[in-house]
Amino acid sequence: MKEVVVLSGKGGTGKTSLVASFAALAQSKVLVDCDVDAADLYLLLKPQITEENEFWSGQVAFIDKEECTECGLCQEMCRFGAIKDYFVDKISCEGCGLCSQICPVNAIIMQSCMAGRWFISETSYGTLIHAKLGITEENSGKLVTLVRNSARLVAEEEKFDYIISDGPSGIGCPVIASLSGANLALLVIEPTLSGIHDLERVIGVCRHFGIPILVCINKYDINEENSYRIEDYCHKSDIEVAVKIPFDNVVTEAIVEGLPVVEYSDGKVTQQVRELWKIVSVKLNN
Amino acid sequence: MIISVASGKGGTGKTLVAVNLALTLSDVYRVQLLDCDVEEPNAHIFLHLATNRSEAVVIPVPRVDETKCTYCGRCAEVCVYNAIAVLKGKVLVFPELCHGCGACSYLCPESAISEEGREIGVVETGDSGNMEFIQGRLAIGEPMAPPIIREVKKHIDRVGEVIIDVPPGTSCPVVEAVKNSDFCLLVTEPTPFGLNDLSLAVELVRKLQIPCGVIINRSGVGDEKVEQYCQEQGIPILLKIPLDRNIATLYSKGIPLIAGMPEWRRVFVTLFQNIKQINSASQVVK
User: Fold this and answer.
1) What is the pLDDT of residue B161?
2) How far apart are CA A136 and CA A195, in angstroms?
3) Minimum Cα–Cα distance from A175: chain B residue
4) A94 close contact with B: CB closer than 8 A
5) Do residues B183 and B95 share a domain?
6) Among candidates A3, A11, A35, A2, which has minimal Cα distance to A198?
7) A219 DSSP assignment
8) What is the pTM of this model?
9) Is residue A43 very low, low, confident or very high in pLDDT (cuts 50, 70, 90)?
10) What residue of A is the nearest CA neighbor of B255?
11) Residues B156 and B184 placed together within one structural domain of the fold
């Protein structure tokens, strides 16, 4: 069983459209949406939820007004500025529990929070593991690890060949959680200066964790000069650029229709995406 | 006034809006532009101004004096982040997991734990005319963006107008970047992905009780559902930016829209006036 995670650094470069297309092209796989705080893959794969689970993670402090003597020690010691006027701002509280440990009259208790939900679903393309982190919640990295572990379990039980994972944007905690131990990171880049800047940073993270990299340039014809720069940069960094996908409005049209683009059109984009999946699967099996 | 520019979904045009609004306002007002997308900061690409001051962002992590330590295990017991473990005759610290809450050092019965700063990124600043630019940059391989965002926001002096470029998503880094703003601009695109992530972002700003307005980017692609949603929810659509190859090309080259197409300057002036009006109306309601 091999796992590919699709990442980009910069958001909105086409990760989800690609993953949905891989879902239609690949045999013997489980799909996982690791973008737990703005999950969109379900909009294209139309899952029927078969199992729904709560995600309990972290705690927040609660001050019992009856017991509190307003000594102010908790406010003074909280490093996150989460206690003002003997009241805990739940959004700022990072759940460390120091206040509850040091309160001289034991007026502070720590309460567990339900930080989100995660789902095992069936789609016409196979099993999808996805999640919804509560708005303003923390611990997205832990939820990513949870959905990935669940996907691994499904893949092992069903003896699937692949785990195909839609990654979050950025380079922080949820990205690191979606990346560690994967067999391949497919980086989807658009040829803008922002895209190039972000590519360099996301390559840095992949290398930091020792994950093999493959690059795909999306909408390459929006700025061909920048696309050459990306190819040149990748060549010098010893990274393979697998395919260059042209800009085509069919990608957006497919999203509006709620379909993977390879199921919607047979044009150049679809040809390149098919080629890309071929290259990805060869890489994974090497 | 502090205006944050957020989106839920990545790649919808937050940076485009934040940079052009800030540049337009800096003709007349003193402006601070804060790039709080510290995982992938891009605003600097459009500004061509040298950041000439750089300060390290450090978080305190424990340092154990093993000559005093009795391996009682209290530190490991109070650390909810599992960043410190006590084995037979050895204390292990995992700095990447540490949130710097200080519980271990405060509660160590032998006073064997002190704290030392660990660098997790930088804040860089630079000036150009009326504009002060401040950006945060998370170091590669580091998971925690919020401490850097907090440091960037400490630079807010409220002398003039403040524009904040927010990271994508709806979890803790977004909350850190958006909170305490007077108004939040939500940039989206007219597709099912854009709508899904916009509705999450709306939930977030409502939870934080910040008035908001919507900007639809790449207007003309996709469908009408974003506009329907805004109407139903009573959220004003403040601007539509059409899908236009010239705009995309300027963006790809790192040229601000108002520099390449000066007629847009007036549009951003109007946008600011509308925000001010909505904001003063909502002040009255409060």
Assistant:
1) 97
2) 27
3) B143
4) yes
5) no
6) A11
7) S
8) 0.94
9) very high
10) A193
11) yes
pLDDT at B285 (0 to 100): 62
Both B34 and B129 in one domain: the answer is yes
**Is B173 touching A (CB cutoff 8 A)?**
yes
Domain extent at residue B33: 2-56+122-285
Q: Which whole-number Å values give the CA distances from B138 to A158, B180, B248, in the listed order?
A: 39, 22, 27
Sites in chain B below the pLDDT cut of 70: 284-286
pLDDT tens digits along A202-223: 999 999 999 999 999 999 999 9
pLDDT, residue B286, reads 54
B34 and B105 inside one domain: no
For residue B105, give the CATH number of its domain. Answer: 3.30.70.20
Our count of domains for chain B comes to 2
pLDDT at A139 exceeding the cut of 90? no
Nearest residue of A to residue B188 by CA position? Answer: A12
Which domains occur in chain A, in start order?
A: 2-46+124-285 (3.40.50.300), 57-114 (3.30.70.20)
Query: B residues 62-101 near A, CB within 8 Å?
Result: 78, 80-81, 99-101
For the record, the structure tokens of B68 come out as 């005093």
Both structure tokens of A54: 């709560």
Q: Are residues B93 and B219 in the same domain?
A: no
Q: Say what the ipTM of the complex is.
A: 0.93
A28 within 8 A of A277, measured Cβ to Cβ? no
Residue B187, in any domain of the structure? yes
* Closest by Cβ to A98, choosing from B11, B12, B106: B106
Tokens 């699967």, residue located: A281
